[in-house]
Amino acid sequence: MGGCFSLDGDVRGGMEAVGGGVTAASAQQGGLNDAVDYFFQTRGLRGLYTPIELSFSASKLRNLDAFSKSDPMLVVYTNIKGKLEEIGRTEVILNSLEPSWITKVTMSYQFEIVQPFIFRIYDVDTKYHNTPVKMLNLSQQDFLGEACCNLSEIVTKFNHSLTLNLRSDCGHGLHGTITVHAEESDSSRMAVEMTLRCLNLENKDVFSKSDPFLRISKLVETAGPIPICKTEVVPDNLNPVWRPITLTSQQYGSKDNPLLVECFDFNSSGDHVLIGAFQTTITQLESLYTSKSGANFYSHKGQRKMKGQLFVDKLQETVQHTFLDYISSGFELNFMVAVDFTASNGDPRVPQSLHYIDPSGRPNSYQQAILGVGEVLQFYDTDRRFPAWGFGARAQGHISHCFNLNTATNDCEVVGVEGIMSAYTSSLYSVSLAGPTMFGPVINKAAEIASQSLQYSNNKYFVLLIITDGVLTDIQETKDCIVRASDLPLSILIVGVGNADFKQMEILDADNGKRLESSTGRIATRDIVQFVPMREVQGGEISVVQSLLEELPGQFLHYMRTRGIKPQQQQGAGLASAPVYPPQQ
């Protein structure tokens, strides 16, 4: 068996961290498991990507052959850090100006990055028709036209299809169209829901009975066991029955992939004691369910067969709607920004200031965060009108902790990422940096907007980006605001710029597996905060934007699934946007 390791450091004590904070509803809906998330975060493991299959057709292509029609082939490129990388070629279709290619391109959709594509179509010369397409020298073929887009522009369409105009390589002329269709793998929607129980577990406690919980891990040859699910803790019980758990096919892979089931006795110190473990597969768990038989646990490294057994009382396959199912059916991510204008940023007129606008055009840390996050999220917001605020400045004679960046009007919205950048720059010359640093007012404003939206529809989810350089003076109020907002369709991204001590921000980000608690003792419904200090990720393999956005699809799905909100029926057109922004006071 092997592969067992201590949970010391995996959780930081407290039953919330091993699953006790997950409600029955969230467990049944495949909600996030805080402790598993914490395991991935602390070990630098990234989230799972969604497999996408792209198919292609073209229309009204140019005819470059004298006695027949063109013989088109499509070449697909992606742009990685300014360098084109070929990711696939289709077959050659003979004598056609309206080709529909059979060859597909398979890739992984990653929400947290911009994935640009360039599509180039060539007329393959007759003398090369017997040459494998991968061996074709493209410089010897006639160029028919090219088009470009981002993958997010395709997947946000109702039918996952986007038609683009083909142009020459210098961008001039119109040379027909290409249609790209994205299909999400059906396997990514499959999930298994199980109810597990144990009998006759060995008691590891002296004065009471064990407090057991289960951890299920995927066994990977090169990485060992990778946790994919934990149950809640059942206190003082050697015959526990746990709430239903849901494993997605993206978590377990194939039904025959090996899984490790471990049962631990919970200790508040975080040093949990292994009761027993065994190796299995989803197929074998299905067999346990149909035969109503149990599987015996084994001691550490399989040295001794134990009396305790695991039973599967319920097992059924379900189809779970994915992030792309929601997005392509009209659900939106509405982007909002709040910028720190406190005096600790330094005088914007001097180069040492975090707000310094470099005449050479090099963006400062605030501009980098706005551009990076905005460039990803803008494709998920149809009207691209973004609320933008500042806080901690003296505006119109008094210190404000939530003022419109668009100081020329009384409207909190600006148009596009460019509008945010312009309003930010203008505000630097129209307000005076002050203080202190307070998040409460801007979080309350964002929560008010998210709450107002629910009066009109449930297809909007809001994302507030806060960029700050300082230490909070309203930490408890901020916690209270976040706990209240955890019931709303809202996520909060915080970027720390500069060299301040950001320990407070790490408390707001519940990546340690324990959810925030308000001053009244209320626990946050879910984790809605992601904090990233810019200095710690700059120069690394993962960008600031990727680190910020990697949890967002999961937070979105958790909100939708636990509230029973399903993707809308496709009707071929987007929903009309209802006004959701309350008037300025």
UniProtKB/TrEMBL annotation:
SMART domains hit by this protein: C2, VWA
Topological type in the membrane: Lipid-anchor
UniProt GO BP: cellular response to calcium ion; defense response
Transmembrane domains' residue ranges: none
Location of the protein in the cell: Cell membrane
Main location: membrane
Recorded GO MF terms: calcium-dependent phospholipid binding; metal ion binding
Gene3D superfamilies with a match to the protein in the record: C2 domain
One Pfam family in the UniProt entry: C2
UniProt keyword terms in alphabetical order: Calcium, Cell membrane, Lipoprotein, Membrane, Metal-binding, Plant defense, Repeat
Domain C2 span(s) in chain numbering: 28-164, 174-298
Assigned GO CC terms: plasma membrane
UniProt similarity note: Belongs to the copine family.
Protein name (Swiss-Prot/TrEMBL): C2 domain-containing protein
Organism of derivation: Sorghum bicolor
Taxonomic lineage of the native organism: Eukaryota, Viridiplantae, Streptophyta, Embryophyta, Tracheophyta
